[in-house]
């Protein structure tokens, strides 16, 4: 497999573009010349064994980590030198593999912070249909959407890991992102919650959002992703449709084989 | 030319002591992740113990030195490590800060009980009578010794860190604090040796410094600020830079003595004393910017419930009724004490806002209160509401001014910069006769309220109770607002906030400004209650003590703030019944913080019992609760 991804399809605009990103932690090359693209309205997968550099790449894209080399473009605009909150205002949103919830707030208030943040962002800009609604009811609607409708009052440290992840997802959706990065959203979810997640991913793509998904659940990746990039030891070792990637010997050696064997 | 050489030599001597104490701070911080605010207090206790043994009991110098440096100091370091440093390993910066501040108060309180500050003591230098000419400057034996010891300490640290196995392991951690996050037996051992070594270095510095300055508890404890400045030059991990920082500060002070224009001196008499604080402030401001990092959270900390609007109104009415009743029941001193408690309670509310909600630590809240009292007193003697309004506005503006440059700092560094600000403000501003008047007593009046005779103590008690209640209602309303949610969110996860498009700076500045304004309001009311105020009412130790009391009783709740204010007012009154201890307030507070160190929300913020797991209704398969956040278990505390 070649290292550079072909643009899947020619129609949709490229929402997110990562170009030759390299990151070094002391003696460890966590990322080396990683490039990928996520077109609007598609779900793209980013897979690889633990420690491959997926979370590090998310940190670079969202602005929490400065790369040694390479560029990040959001909607064609170079954001490499912008701080994280400015990138978020351009429609970039994410969840965290290690939960970054607001532990002092209720589940509903976690989401509400997101709703209120996006509202401030759009003030003076184009009116959004949701703007008529109260932040409270928008937050509740988002909780419903991830299947946690009646947990708005719950303290987040009382939630199961799966529910806590879904709260993070709802919060990430609250800012109405054009691009959303999901870091292992399925881990800790039970099968019903996983089904909700899969539906949600398809809905998001259908509504024009670009989704970059890090996920160990091969089934979920096969079902939802149009395109998959495989990382191993910080390098892209394969990229293509899920089926192409799955049949690649390099990938089987590095990731899928070992992962399925351990399941 | 000769003068320059002489000033340089003196500067190097003092700088050498700062370098020794700073290297101790760095060794402890870099190996254990805890910045020891009590470092200077450890040096102070060592200097006093050495005096006790060698001067008071006449032990030979080598024996006294051996007992202090080889027994007492290591034991103190070990004790600290055993008592709570280990539990701090995974705790937040905020918690470890509070506990070491508590230790500082305990050590200062214990020392002032043993060695009464009333009587003066003199610790003679080493090699009395000996002097030598260096570069044309007469140096005492003590001064030569100081430089020699600094060189020896630098050499010993170098040899230890480069050439012994244990030392190399320590150095690995000093160089790469990420390693610290990985738990392990060997790291516990390294942290322990870091505490012992740091404690011994603090003791050496204390014993060397006391003869050069004075054997005084507060002076020696606060001289460590110079060490903080030097350590921050080395970014709390680089020992050579730390040594250079110490020398640079010594030189700066010495040159200021020689070359600062006389006109500055007469205009701002405290400017020289405040130099180390200004130096620390300046160094903090040029530090490289820390990026926000996603760290995950090892321990979920749940906030206490926030009272609703109607509920807080109900409590307030109750509080006013209690105040009216108490006014009738209490004696004169009781009325004054409770009134003071309400005024301090308002200042403690400013800490609820800043520390409890926004998660930032300020050691300058009484400074802002002092500014409030000063403004109110200067404007028509404090007897108009306009004066109170101006006090609030100017204290708030000053808070914003301090926060503007300091806000890119977080946690520990922000706390250090407020400490520098508080001390500098005391020396340059409060101690100046232009501010609180000659003799340090500025008259502050009480604004009138139509239909109430505010000159009566009982009426003032009710006025203050109502003022506290209104402030509490305001703070709770803020907490329930969008801004309040954002402050809490930013404190819980700066990374998540950034990815939602919220930027840290304006939020932090807003929190700082509002909190300073509230403290200014409390200060103005306190001034009106007292009738006159001076620099002593608004010192750094006071800020620390009130903050720690707030932490003990619950810095995330308004009831915690009220009780903290009451305790701050009442403990000095109880002091007269306790003769064997001279600093009841400090010792009780310090010990209290150490004891409630495990209780993240303080006594009034204790968790409600209903900790059952809430599961998603869609959950078909049950996830055992033990698995909750299991992947977070191996998570690490963040440093800085
Ligand atoms: N802040 C850091 N400092 C040093 N090494 C790090 C840091 N963050 C991640 N790493 C290392 O970088 C590699 C990639 O990590 P990560 O991006 O989390 O992988 P993944 O998400 O694919 O499991 C790992 O070997 C990890 O240990
Ligand atoms: Mg990861």
Helices and strands in order, then pairings?
The complex is a heterodimer of chains A (263) and B (640).
Chain A: E1 14-25, E2 28-39, E3 43-47, H1 54-62, E4 69-74, E5 77-78, H2 84-89, E6 92-94, H3 107-122, H4 135-145, H5 161-174, E7 179-183, H6 191-206, E8 210-214, H7 218-224, E9 227-232, E10 235-240, H8 242-247, H9 249-262
Parallel strand pairs in A: 3-8, 3-9, 6-7, 7-8
Antiparallel strand pairs in A: 1-2, 1-4, 4-5, 9-10
Helix pairs in contact in A: 3-4, 3-5, 4-5
Chain B: H1 2-32, H2 39-56, H3 61-88, H4 93-114, E1 131-134, E2 137-140, H5 141-163, H6 165-175, H7 185-212, H8 217-222, H9 224-233, H10 239-259, H11 262-267, H12 275-286, H13 309-329, H14 332-357, H15 365-378, H16 385-406, H17 411-430, H18 433-436, E3 442-443, H19 457-480, H20 482-492, H21 494-499, H22 504-530, E4 532-533, H23 540-553, H24 558-574, H25 584-595
Antiparallel strand pairs in B: 1-2, 3-4
The structure holds adenosine-5'-diphosphate and magnesium ion (MG).
Q: Give the SSE string of chain A.
A: EEEHEEHEHHHEHEHEEHH
CATH class of the largest domain in chain A: Alpha Beta
Beta-strand share of residues of chain A: 15-25%
Structural class of chain A, by secondary structure, is alpha/beta
Question: Largest beta sheet of chain A, briefly?
Answer: 6 strands, mixed
Q: By CATH's scheme, which homologous superfamily of the largest domain in chain A applies? A: P-loop containing nucleotide triphosphate hydrolases
What hetero molecules are in the model?
adenosine-5'-diphosphate, magnesium ion
Q: How many domains of chain A?
A: 2
- From the spread of the alpha carbons, the general shape of chain A counts as globular
Overall tally of domains of chain B: 2
First CA to last CA of chain B: what distance? 43 Å
Give the C-alpha Rg of chain A.
18 Å
> Between the first and last Cα atoms of chain A, what is the distance in angstroms?
26 Å
The overall pLDDT of chain A, averaged over residues, is: 86
CATH-assigned fold name of the largest domain in chain B:
ABC transporter involved in vitamin B12 uptake, BtuC
């Amino acid at each position: 497999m070649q290292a550079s991804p072909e643009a899947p399809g020619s129609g949709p605009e490229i929402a997110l573009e990562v170009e030759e990103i390299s990151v070094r932690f002391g003696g460890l090359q966590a990322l080396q010349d990683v490039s990928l693209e996520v077109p609007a309205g598609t779900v793209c997968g980013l897979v690889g064994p633990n420690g491959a550099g997926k979370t590090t790449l998310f940190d670079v894209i969202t602005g929490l980590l400065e790369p040694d080399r390479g560029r990040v473009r959001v909607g064609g605009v170079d954001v490499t030198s912008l701080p994280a909150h400015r990138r978020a205002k351009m429609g970039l949103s994410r969840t965290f593999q290690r939960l970054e919830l607001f532990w002092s707030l209720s589940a509903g208030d976690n989401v509400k912070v997101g709703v209120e943040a996006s509202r401030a962002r759009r003030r003076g800009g184009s009116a959004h249909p949701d703007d008529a609604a109260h932040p409270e009811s928008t937050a509740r609607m988002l909780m419903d959407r991830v299947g946690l409708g009646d947990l708005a009052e719950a303290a987040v440290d009382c939630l199961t890991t799966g529910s806590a992840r879904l709260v993070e997802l709802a919060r990430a959706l609250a800012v109405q992102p054009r691009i959303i990065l999901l870091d292992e959203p399925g881990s800790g979810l039970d099968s019903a919650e996983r089904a909700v997640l899969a539906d949600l991913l398809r809905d998001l793509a259908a509504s024009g959002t670009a989704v970059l998904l890090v996920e160990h659940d091969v089934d979920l990746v096969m079902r939802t992703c149009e395109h998959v990039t495989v990382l191993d030891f910080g390098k892209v070792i394969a990229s293509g449709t899920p089926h192409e990637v799955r049949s690649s010997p390099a990938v089987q050696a590095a990731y899928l084989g070992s992962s399925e064997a351990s399941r | 030319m000769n003068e320059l050489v002489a000033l340089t030599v003196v500067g190097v001597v003092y700088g050498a002591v700062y370098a020794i104490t700073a290297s101790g701070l760095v060794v402890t911080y870099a190996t254990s992740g805890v910045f020891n605010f009590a470092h200077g207090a450890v040096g102070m206790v060592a200097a006093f113990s050495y005096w006790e043994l060698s001067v008071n009991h006449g032990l030979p110098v080598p024996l006294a030195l051996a007992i202090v440096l080889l027994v007492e100091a290591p034991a103190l370091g070990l004790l600290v490590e055993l008592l709570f440093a280990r539990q701090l390993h995974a705790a937040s910066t905020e918690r470890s800060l509070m506990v070491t501040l508590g230790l500082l108060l305990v050590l200062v309180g214990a020392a002032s009980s043993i060695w009464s500050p009333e009587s003066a003591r003199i610790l003679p230098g080493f090699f009395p009578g000996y002097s030598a000419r260096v570069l044309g400057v007469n140096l005492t034996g003590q001064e030569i010794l100081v430089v020699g010891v600094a060189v020896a300490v630098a050499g010993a640290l170098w040899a230890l860190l480069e050439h012994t196995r244990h030392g190399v392991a320590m150095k690995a951690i000093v160089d790469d604090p990420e390693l610290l996050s990985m738990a392990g037996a060997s790291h516990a051992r390294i942290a322990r040796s870091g505490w012992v070594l740091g404690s011994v270095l603090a003791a050496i510095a204390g014993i060397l410094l006391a003869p050069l300055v004075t054997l005084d508890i507060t002076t020696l404890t606060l001289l460590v600020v110079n060490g903080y400045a030097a350590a921050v030059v080395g970014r709390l991990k680089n020992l050579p830079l730390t040594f250079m920082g110490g020398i640079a500060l010594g030189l700066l002070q010495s040159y200021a003595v020689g070359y600062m224009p006389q006109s500055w001196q007469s205009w701002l008499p405290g400017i020289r004393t405040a130099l180390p604080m200004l130096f620390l402030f300046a160094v903090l401001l040029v530090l490289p910017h820390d990026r926000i990092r996603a760290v995950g959270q090892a321990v979920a900390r749940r906030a206490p419930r926030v009272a609703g609007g109607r509920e807080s109104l109900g409590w307030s009415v109750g509080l006013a009724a209690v105040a009216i009743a108490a006014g009738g029941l209490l004696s004169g001193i009781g009325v004054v004490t409770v009134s003071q408690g309400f005024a301090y309670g308002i200042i403690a509310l400013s800490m609820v806002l800043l520390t409890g909600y926004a998660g930032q630590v300020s050691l300058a809240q009484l400074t802002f209160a002092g500014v409030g009292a000063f403004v109110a007193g200067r404007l028509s003697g404090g007897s108009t509401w306009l004066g109170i309004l101006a006090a609030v506005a100017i204290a708030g503006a000053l808070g914003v001014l301090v926060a503007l440059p300091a806000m890119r700092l977080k946690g520990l560094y922000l706390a250090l910069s407020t400490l520098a600000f508080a001390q500098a403000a005391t020396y340059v501003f409060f101690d100046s006769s232009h501010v609180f008047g000659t003799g340090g007593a500025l008259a502050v009046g009480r604004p009138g309220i139509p239909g109430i005779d505010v000159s009566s103590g009982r009426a003032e008690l009710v006025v203050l109770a109502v003022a506290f209640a209104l402030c509490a209602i305001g703070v709770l309303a803020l907490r329930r607002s969008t801004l309040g949610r954002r402050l809490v969110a930013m404190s819980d996860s700066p990374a998540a906030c950034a990815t939602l498009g919220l930027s840290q700076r304006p939020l932090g500045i807003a929190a700082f400004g509002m909190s300073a304004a509230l403290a200014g309001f409390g200060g103005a009311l306190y001034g009106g209650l007292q009738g006159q105020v001076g620099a002593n009412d608004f010192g750094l130790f006071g800020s620390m003590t009130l903050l720690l009391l707030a932490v003990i009783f619950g810095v995330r709740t308004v009831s915690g703030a009220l009780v903290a204010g009451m305790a701050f007012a009442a403990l000095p009154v109880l002091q007269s019944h306790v003769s064997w201890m001279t600093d009841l307030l400090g010792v009780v507070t310090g010990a209290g913080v150490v004891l409630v160190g495990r209780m993240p929300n303080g006594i009034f913020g204790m968790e409600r019992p209903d900790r059952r797991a809430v599961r998603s209704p869609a959950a078909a398969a049950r996830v055992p609760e033990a698995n909750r956040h299991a992947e977070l278990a191996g998570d690490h505390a963040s440093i800085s």
